[in-house]
Design a protein that fits this description.
The complex is a heterodimer of chains A (about 290) and B (about 140).
Chain A (H helix, E strand, L loop, with lengths): L4 E14 H4 L8 E12 L4 E4 L5 H12 L1 E2 L4 H6 L10 E3 L5 H4 L9 E5 H11 L14 H12 L3 E4 L3 E5 L2 E7 L5 E8 L9 E4 L8 H4 L18 H14 L7 E2 L12 E3 L5 E6 L10
Parallel strand pairs in A: 3-5, 5-6, 6-7, 11-12
Antiparallel strand pairs in A: 1-2, 1-4, 1-14, 2-3, 8-9, 9-10, 10-11, 13-14
Chain B lengths: L6 H32 L10 H19 L7 H26 L7 H20 L18
Helix pairs in contact in B: 1-2, 1-3, 1-4, 2-3, 3-4
The chains are: A alpha/beta (about 290), B mainly alpha (about 140).
Chain lengths: ~290, ~140
């Protein structure tokens, strides 16, 4: 049985992203599509998301014209494809503070947001450094930090220090410090609610971009290969890949990278009229399929 | 298609890019301090080194903004930088006062001018090419083109 329905919601994409971003050291190996997405978790009386996408009003045009980000759709349109409105979302688990994961905080008026305290404090520390260290600030929008101030004042920002179990029934947060960013976290959903679940999904954020990060390129001789972008270390990424795979019961297909276009080869999906993909990972009892 | 800027405007752009980035940095530093205060961090105190760094950077940048010589075409951009600097100049002492008494303190004297300053920077980023509110380069969206 499934307690939660789980969908991967694409909200924009880049058609030609260098493979070296997905896979560390994969230089001169062409390009591939990179979807931008977030996860919807729908339970009997709760809707949560993992990440929220970015603020198109502020920099959508720059992203479109300078970086090839195409087909952005707002949360209201994306979520409607699975029968959800932004107002229905009561919990949001932010994997890390990059603009494409937490830029749309203000689109969810009733949500409480969970982020690792270290993610905030280390970004703040990076801001105090001199200009020559500005690479450490990449992908961070000061406006998102101001939104976080508002959330904190409203009591809607929960700063987590390390792992936290059962933030919702069967849903756990796991810290992955000094990896893709300083205070990354990933989310597990034990979809049978059992402490020793045999039905665990791992939502990797940007700790994994593609299945090669978990399997390498030789199916007969798998290995972990980190993503091509890290503020922390490749070592942390590899050790976190092992940890996530174990939590998924050794089944790498239950470790979900939102930027992996080939999820469609593993799970049922459909393309919406807006040209974005919805991938259905699990359906709760009584929930109708949104892809068939 | 928009015509490329003339040589004098390009010179202004090159001169003002680091000023824009410095003002953006001051705004980010202030926002970061507010997050620490709003989340109850013990680090949120007036002796936090970032507040001093923001004050120094702001003072240096303010003087340099005033020294820029925009072309007529670039004048609205420089006006936006000046307005941003004016707002941030209001937010900085308010931030020092806030951090001195974070319990039950009123964030608005900092947050309102900070937002104002940020919106002027956003406007500046839209008026001329070469100004970015977020460093996307080398990030997870970069390299697509």
């Amino acid at each position: 049985m499934n307690h939660y329905s789980l969908w991967v919601m694409e909200y924009a994409h880049v058609l030609q992203m260098p493979t070296s971003l997905f896979v560390y050291g994969a230089h001169n190996q062409g390009h591939r599509k990179m979807p931008y997405g977030y996860i919807v978790i729908k339970g009997p009386d709760v809707v949560a998301t993992i990440d929220v996408g970015y603020n198109h009003t502020a920099y959508g045009e720059v992203l479109a014209t300078s970086y090839g980000v195409a087909n952005w759709q707002p949360a209201r349109a994306v979520l409607a494809e699975v029968g959800v409105a932004p107002e229905d979302v009561s919990r949001v688990f932010i994997t890390h503070a990059h603009f494409d994961h937490m830029g749309a905080l203000d689109q969810y008026p009733n949500a409480t947001f969970y982020i690792q305290e270290r993610e905030l404090t280390k970004w703040v520390w990076a801001m105090s450094l001199e200009r020559r260290f500005r690479w450490l600030m990449l992908g961070i929008d000061p406006a998102d930090i101001m939104k976080a101030v508002d959330l904190a004042r409203q009591g809607r920002l929960v700063c987590v220090d390390g792992d936290r179990a059962d933030v919702l029934p069967g849903i756990d947060l796991h810290a992955a410090f000094d990896s893709h960013t300083w205070g990354c976290q990933y989310v597990t959903v034990r979809n049978d609610l059992s402490p020793n679940s045999q039905n665990t999904w791992v939502f990797a954020g940007d700790l994994v971009y593609a299945h090669e990060n978990l399997r390498g390129t030789d199916p007969n001789d798998p290995q972990y290969v980190p993503v091509g972008l890290a503020t922390g270390s490749q070592f942390s990424l590899i050790m976190t890949a092992e940890e996530m795979t174990k939590r998924a019961g050794g089944d790498y297909t239950h470790v979900i990278p939102v930027h992996e276009e080939r999820l469609k080869d593993l799970f049922p999906s459909r393309i919406t009229r807006a040209g974005l993909r919805i991938t259905e990972l699990a359906l709760a009892d009584g929930e109708q399929s949104r892809v068939r | 298609m928009t015509a490329p800027p003339d040589d004098h405007t390009v010179a202004y752009i090159l001169e003002s890019q680091p000023l824009f980035e410095d003002l953006r940095q001051v705004a980010a530093q202030l926002a970061g301090l507010l997050v620490l205060a709003a989340t109850g961090s013990r680090d949120a105190a007036p002796d936090h080194p970032m507040l001093g760094a923001a004050e120094v950077l702001f003072k240096e940048t303010l003087e340099r903004v005033e020294r820029t010589r925009p072309t007529e075409h670039a004048r609205p951009h420089r006006d936006s930088l000046r307005q941003a600097a004016r707002a941030l100049g209001e937010a900085l002492p308010a931030a020092r006062a806030l951090l001195a008494s974070p319990n039950g303190a009123d964030f608005d004297p900092v947050l309102i001018p900070l937002r104002d300053g940020y919106s002027h920077l956003q406007r500046a980023s839209q008026l001329l090419p070469g100004f970015r509110m977020v460093a996307f380069e080398q990030g997870c969206c970069a390299g697509g083109l």
